[in-house]
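It would be a great kindness if you could assist me with a short task in structural biology. Thank you for your consideration; the sequence and its tokens are set out here.
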Amino acid sequence: MVAATADSRPLPVMKQYKNFIDGQWVAAASGETFVNLNPADTREKVAEYAKGGAADAQAAIEAAQAAFPGWRDTTPPARGKILSAVANNLASRQGELAELLCREEGKTKMESGMEVGRTVDIFRFMAGLSYTIGGTVVPHDLPNNMLYTKREPLGVVGLITPWNFPIALPAWKLAPALVSGNTVVLKPASLAPAMTMEIAKAFEEAGLPKGVLNVVTGSGKEVGDALATNPRVQAVSFTGSHDVGSGIYQQLAPRMARAQMEMGGKNPTLVLADADLDYAAKLVAMAGYMMTGQVCTATSRAIVEESVADEFTEKLIAEAKSRNVGNGLTEGVNMGPAVSAAELEGNLEYLQIAKDEGAEVLWGGDRLIEGDLEHGHFMSPAVIGGVKNSMRIAQEEVFGPVIGVVKAADFDEAIELANDIEYGLSASIITRDINKAMRYTDRIEAGVVKINQISTGLALQAPFGGVKHSSSNNFKEQGQSAIDFYTRIKSVYLDYSG
């Protein structure tokens, strides 16, 4: 591994964002602000934001409630045209937005560009889907009678999004919510709100009626609680940790508001003895280290048949050593920093816990402080050996570039180990045996299964969601299924016999 230092360049001027409420950019009711720093170079102030709270959330909810009747009565294709305009706006600024994303969240230039591109595709996909939103005609058992269904929006919905995909994840919640006719209050993660604010700007320029989209930055506890407890909010879609998601779910339950919770993973990749081990090591490393491992579908457990485990581990270490860690804006860097000092410290703490429980850090896991790296939150990607399923490193989500290698006696034990966990988001298998691959898809407890592919990466046209503690397990995100969460179905009976 070679640590890359940052290019010498003048620091950009700090951006400034206010809350977007009822079509206006407004300061927080408290008058307070907060500043985000570049995680690759904390000498750089990236942006200043309004520090919103309960009062700001309440104002946003009231604006969304007032805007709902008019937006509900707009046809889905008309809503879709606004989404198309937003997609075109973002596409025209892809390079600019990718650089901003890189500076605030820490992704590499390539990763940031891919995420902005995916966001454009999400809005275009949902814009096209607007022409299909409707109901179905159901056969009636009487003559001269008609029975059909229609989809209707819920009303005001709350969206709470994480920092690790700060433009794509707001988009994949926001696009189906709006195209279905709902009005929205969106709370982005405080570590990386800039991209959400840029989406709001794009909607403003596209002519979205005031109050249809409202964005409040600031206190996750205050704004989140306001969304979860206000009776005007009909549904909340959340992506983040299990503890926070579970808490929001409990708040919604007493008033039976609709909930969609995506809450992380501890994702396995099974490597069978018949696999191409060079290929397997490349896939596991890519899935574990891309985006600095800060991905809910990242591979954090490589479960390997013991006959090839040592050879595979050597190849995985070689892959880890090949990562070039540094500022994502620097050419040649393929792994950036942790998003914050707290996230970095959490990763390092888990490595110590693993060692205390008897595992061995075979390579990496060091804080990197050479040259300009001392100003960022950098660590070398880690490979951990001797991992047992009883260890915390095998059971708890580590949101960083850390891969534990677990040995399994055979295919059946590998599946048992993969399922012996509270999470069930994504899972993959690398094998030449199609029979075992298909048996794996049947037996693995996960919402997404990959065969001879990385555990990360999702097709926007396919449903996404997990099982067990990874999800509320009721409504899927992405694809046509995304519309289900944001609409209710009404059955209409019509008698035209006389």
